[in-house]
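S.,

Sequence below, as promised.
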Amino acid sequence: MNRRKFILVFTLLIAVLTSFAQIDDSTMLRKHEPKPKFWDKVFIGGGLGAQFGEQTVINISPVVGYRITEKIHAGIGVTYEYFHYRRDFYDLETNIFGGSVFGRYYFTKNLFGHGEFEYLNLEAFDYYPTRRVDVESLLAGGGYIQRFGQNSGILIMLLYNFTESQYTPYQNPIIRIGVNIGL
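The prediction came back faster than expected:
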């Protein structure tokens, strides 16, 4: 009988000490994990686009972003677009310049929600002579990223412009394909 009690107490003691040892090991590991540096959380990327024919469009849109947390990313972008429309008596050509700020929330490792405020300056062809106008857009939607590294991937987004106007250079829905590369 004493032997059973001794084995029971000894087993419980070993179990308790082992559990404390595991807790201490995990906390020690957390204390010694290096914190990510600023540049480890920065990503660059953007998109390139081209369309040729009756309507020619060439688009360059680089972005720089920061991973605030694993699920929340934010950034800024710059846009340049060359636009040329030629048909019958029309020959319209303009350069579009602008910028944007965006935020993303990752629901899973690959699926995210995207919100963006975009400002563009473009030439309006509704008066003669033409004039430049400012176009502000509030875009929101979702996307999917196919990762090819821990912080890099190719993404596709489906966005909707909630402030579409007669001068908006694209129609709803907006499909964007781009790349993000972690530094």
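Residues 2-32 form the longest helix (31 residues).

Coffee later?
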